[in-house]
Amino acid sequence: MVYYLSQAILERFAGTPQADLTAWLSAFQSITLRSAGAAVTALLLTLGFGRRVIEYLRRYFSQGYVPEARPEVKSPAEDSSGKKARKKHVPTMGGVLIVGAIDVSALLWAQLNELVIVTMFSMLGLTFIGVWDDMGKIEGGARRAGLSARAKFLAQVAVAILIVMVLWVYPGRRMLVSDTLVSLGGREAFSFLALLGAAASVLLIVGLSNAVNLTDGMDGLAIGCTSIVTGVLVVVTYVASHAIMADYLNTPHIQGAGELTVFTSAMAGACLGFLWFNCYPAQVFMGDTGALALGGAIGVIALLVHRIDVVLIASGVFLAEIGSVVIQVISSRGSRWLFKRDMRPFLCTPIHHHFEKLGWEETKIVTRFYIINALFCVAALAYLKTK
After folding, report:
1. How far is CA 192 from the centre of its chain?
2. The pTM is what?
3. Concatenated DSSP letters for 204-235?
4. What is the C-alpha to C-alpha distance for residues 54 and 285, in angstroms, rounded to an integer?
5. How does residue 291 score in pLDDT terms, banded at 50, 70 and 90?
6. How many Cα atoms are found within 13 Å in the side-chain-facing hemisphere of 387?
7. Nearest residue to 270 via CA among 43, 93, 52, 106
8. Centroid of chain to Cα 10
9. Dihedral, CA of residue 297, residue 299, residue 300 and residue 301, to nearest 10
């Protein structure tokens, strides 16, 4: 909106005596300025409306809420310190605050090209799935745990397939989907496997969506790690939008990717604002409403800038979380089938609960995961030039 309004004013007074008075509006053509504006706007919106949203959620969406109870994925009964009682009455669905701040900031500062629209659609679609799931947990209480794992997975796959189909048929954007394996492996021999690339694209979106959701098990853990990863997304999208920088860093030049820089900056601002309320002790949880949307958006942006490899490296903590669950389930079921005994490599999964069972304090686990995640992000940025 700011960009379109400034351009309209410039065009209206072009060639008139007032042109010099409105010349400063040309600054809003700058992606850097609009990205900064989007980040600050999203941060202020989250901080400004945070308490009101939390109070609303606490009044209508916290009674009877219980976390998911899947022994192979979530932590079992917590210790007697009162942590379970404290967290039971913290409102969930705080993801509406994050997604709302991101969308408003993006609409205000970005040009709505097809890349931004696809990303916003992915967030809204996955947000709807998350709201559906979180509402089920709240209303069902102990009798129901939201959507079944299969229903949630199929809904995520449906959203991902729709996104891939839109990119597939949109003029000039098919290569973002068909050449997914080229981005991963760097081998042109794979580029003809377009359908396999489309399947990999769906897997990327669904996988990262679930990975962030599984990471959301401790106060501030998922949102803090997401804030760090969005820093890498800001850099990668900006590089992809700049022809000279993209060529120097061996990154595909994607026309219009600069508007994704504005969008990812809004993500960073909203995540930092939400962390203000979600840090220990949490006043609100983002729930599946926010976790599915943020993870899916990371996957979609990685796809749109064609640097999936870089984003996956930056998402190392998320991959470790979902990887620990996969390993735990395979080990448990495989050992029962082969050896007639349950053999699990972790005390509990996702892996942050393993360290909790080892006696680590929650705040210590979260802080150390931040450090590890930052190291992954530094490695991802260093990898930009090595491909």
Report:
1. 29
2. 0.90
3. HHHHHHHHHHHHTTSTTHHHHHHHHHHHHHHH
4. 9
5. very high
6. 23
7. 43
8. 36
9. 80
pLDDT-derived band at 245 (thresholds 50, 70, 90) equals: very high
Give the span between the Cα atoms of 375 and 387, in whole angstroms: 19
**Per-residue confidence (pLDDT) for residue 185, from 0 to 100:** 57
CA distances to 154, 169, 254 from 150, rounded to whole Å, are: 6, 28, 35
Q: Which amino acid is at 88?
A: K
Distance CA 387, CA 283 (A): 43
Q: How many CA atoms lie within 13 A of 28 on its CB side?
A: 20
Distance, CA of 306 to CA of 167 (rounded, Å): 13
Q: Rounded to whole angstroms, how far apart are CA atoms 293 and 130? A: 8
* Cα–Cα distance, 318 to 314 (Å, whole number): 9
Q: How far apart are CA 156 and CA 140, in angstroms?
A: 22
Length of the chain: 387
Token pair recorded at residue 262: 């504005």
